[in-house]
């Protein structure tokens, strides 16, 4: 009897917890056809080969929500295994940015008060991020 073990590559993702001057956090709703579709998330995306996390975050935030970041600070890293996907999230605080956020890929985006984050349906991997935001 042979046993085959499927190995899946962990996806490295740069994530931005973007806070505006009113201390609201930017959320984006994942498109329904994507992994964890229909749930809310903090914007970001895959770190490409040869990119730093900061470079990936800057690129993704420009592509997804039309924001240009001017400074970030590391918040935390999370490794999470879903049944169908493994992710490594590199999460950064983003408080210095220019532009008006809007969903360039057709996704809904909204600014929400920190205290309201618990009212949104997030992917499981995002729960520790919310806890950390609420502590700050």
TrEMBL record:
**Cofactor(s) listed:** Mg(2+)
PROSITE patterns per the UniProt record, alphabetical? NUDIX, NUDIX_BOX
Keyword terms, alphabetized: DNA damage, DNA repair, DNA replication, Hydrolase, Magnesium, Metal-binding, Mutator protein
Catalyses which reaction(s):
8-oxo-dGTP + H2O = 8-oxo-dGMP + diphosphate + H(+); 8-oxo-GTP + H2O = 8-oxo-GMP + diphosphate + H(+)
Residue span(s) of domain Nudix hydrolase? 9-135
Q: Could you tell me the EC number(s) of this protein?
A: 3.6.1.55
TM ranges: none
Which CDD domains would you find in this protein's record? NUDIX_MutT_NudA_like
NCBIfam families, per database record: mutt
Q: Tell me which family the UniProt entry assigns to this protein.
A: Belongs to the Nudix hydrolase family.
Q: What is this protein called?
A: 8-oxo-dGTP diphosphatase
Which species is listed as the source?
Answer: Shewanella psychropiezotolerans
The taxonomy runs:
Bacteria, Pseudomonadati, Pseudomonadota, Gammaproteobacteria, Alteromonadales
Name of the gene this protein is made from:
mutT
């Amino acid at each position: 009897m042979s046993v085959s073990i499927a190995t899946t590559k962990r996806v490295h993702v740069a994530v931005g917890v973007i806070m505006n001057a009113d201390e609201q956090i930017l959320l984006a709703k994942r498109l329904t056809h994507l992994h964890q579709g229909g749930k809310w998330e903090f914007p970001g995306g895959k770190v490409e080969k040869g990119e730093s996390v900061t470079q990936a975050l800057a690129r993704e935030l420009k592509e997804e929500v039309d924001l240009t970041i001017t400074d970030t600070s590391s918040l935390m890293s999370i490794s999470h295994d879903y049944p169908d996907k493994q992710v490594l999230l590199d999460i950064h605080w983003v408080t210095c940015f220019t532009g008006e956020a809007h969903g360039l890929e057709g996704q809904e985006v909204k600014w929400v008060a920190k205290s309201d984050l618990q009212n949104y349906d997030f992917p499981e991997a995002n729960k520790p991020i919310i806890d950390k935001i609420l502590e700050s």
